[in-house]
Specification:
This protein has twelve helices and 25 strands. The protein is α/β, with parallel strands linked by helices and about 450 residues long. The chain has two domains: about 220 residues, P-loop containing nucleotide triphosphate hydrolases (Rossmann fold, 3-Layer(aba) Sandwich), CATH 3.40.50.300; about 200 residues, Class I glutamine amidotransferase (GATase) domain (Rossmann fold), CATH 3.40.50.880. The longest helix has 14 residues.
Length: about 450
């Protein structure tokens, strides 16, 4: 097996600086001429966009709720083969999962045998961070913390006090990020605003000046994980298919890299922008409408009437279609805006979506359901809701959360259309399994 620097960047909690450190290290190592393979723990789409912009390589999601341990290992190892270094950005706190630490980035570290770099927010604290770091060092002995990077360090004196912490605990300190106003990033919904992908040179310079990146790479060298088993889930049809994917900068932008790999294996993949007013091709075999922020571009989507009408015709004729979250919103009757302005959408599904302030509510969490003898899993996050003045849409299947509790998140199946608020992960189950014939289901 190959031996190379590889590590997971984690923190005690969200907001500690994982993305800043991850992106800065990626930018610096790319500048040094290295092939950096990025990954992201969990279902996040937005951090992967930062990774790809910096590393010029697709960033892959590693999620132990949505996929098996074997699949996570396979995805990680497959894309690490030609890399000089692998960097996995964690999510939330190191041990925060859907059920205690199940599904956490600490579980990903254990499954892959990765050392952890702990990013600690040192703002307004000094030796008190010793208690926090000590707890993380000794909480689980099957999670190896290779060292610490401090964030929001205010002065040289502050830095020296933090160095004393690491010496006291006998844990390597690989450096720090000084407190800088320039590092403040605006946020949108649940993550950093990916429309602001700048400052890579500034970040990489900070890392080079204040972090012992060479010592970090040396300390985190280890062998790639051994894949427990191999599942051949290439999802290749007998004949190459024509696949059409909605894609643009924001309104249809949430696509897992592993999904795109699968679609390219299935045939010819073409992309279109639903904000541009043109009919979709007539000879497509699959239509994929991924998530994004269509509610932010409702006016442009409404004006693209030819696009909406051609999609409605395609679905009415039985065309295979998967619509996830933003894609489902696009297939609704329309969007009611804050000022009670109505934006007409494709009109396939019999409900309206509200983005009015009084109706905004965060719906967040893992989801799963059984369909055609297969368990499908995914993740839901949105603030829009079904228009409350109208009856709640009837679900085609019962949907459950990560603890197998039913949730009021409808899933719609009609002919060859599958639509819901859930962003499915079918990197392991395959895409075509969603549409295989089922004699027991005729709705």
């Amino acid at each position: 097996m190959r031996n190379l620097p590889q590590f997971l960047i984690a923190a005690p909690s969200s907001g500690a600086g994982k993305t800043t450190v991850s992106r800065g290290l990626m930018a610096l190592l790319v500048r040094k001429g290295m092939k950096v393979q990025p990954y992201k723990c969990g279902p996040d789409y937005i951090d992967t966009k930062f990774h790809e912009a910096v590393c010029h390589r697709s960033s892959y999601n590693l999620d132990t709720f949505m996929a098996s341990f074997a699949h996570v290992q396979e995805v990680y190892t497959q894309h690490a083969q030609d890399a000089d270094v692998c960097i996995v950005e964690g999510m939330m706190g190191l041990f925060d999962g859907f059920d205690c630490d199940r599904g956490s980035c600490s579980e990903v570290a254990r499954v892959l045998g990765l050392p952890v770099i702990l990013v600690v927010n040192a703002q307004s604290a000094a030796f008190s961070t010793a208690a926090l770091i000590s707890g993380f060092l000794h909480f689980r002995y099957d999670v190896k913390i290779a060292g610490v990077i401090f964030n929001n360090v205010g002065s040289k004196k502050h830095k020296d006090m933090l160095w004393d912490v690491c010496e006291h605990l006998h844990v390597p300190c690989f450096g720090y990020i000084p407190k800088r106003q320039e590092l403040m990033q605006s946020s949108r919904y649940l993550g950093l605003d990916f429309s602001e992908m700048n400052g890579d040179e500034y970040l990489s310079n900070l890392i080079e000046e204040h972090v012992d990146w060479q010592g970090l790479l040396q300390a985190t060298k280890c062998e790639l994980p051994v894949v427990l088993e191999h599942k051949n889930e290439d999802d290749k049809p007998m004949e190459p298919m024509n696949i059409l994917v909605a894609s643009n900068e924001e309104s249809f932008s949430f696509i897992y890299a592993e999904h795109m790999d699968i679609l390219h294996k299935m045939g010819k993949v073409s992309f279109f922008n639903p904000e541009e007013d043109q009919e979709i091709p007539a000879n497509i075999d699959l239509l994929y409408l991924p998530g994004g922020y269509p509610e932010k571009h409702a006016a442009a989507l409404t004006k693209a009437k030819k696009t909406r009408e051609s999609i409605r015709r395609y679905i009415a004729s039985g065309g295979k279609t998967l619509a996830e979250c933003g894609g489902m919103i696009y297939l609704s009757q329309g969007i009611v805006a804050d000022e009670n302005q109505f934006y007409e959408m494709a009109g396939v599904l019999p409900f309206k979506i509200s983005m009015r302030k009084q109706d905004r509510k965060l719906s967040l969490g893992y989801r799963d359901f059984d369909w055609r003898e297969q368990r499908y899993r995914g993740h839901e996050f949105h603030y829009t809701q079904f228009l409350p003045e109208e009856p709640v849409p009837t679900t085609s299947l019962r949907v459950f959360d990560a603890k197998s509790r039913p949730v009021d998140s409808p899933l719609f199946i009609s002919k060859n259309l599958i639509a819901s608020y859930t962003h499915l992960y079918w990197g392991e189950t395959g895409f075509l399994e969603l549409f295989k014939p089922d004699p027991n289901y005729s709705k």
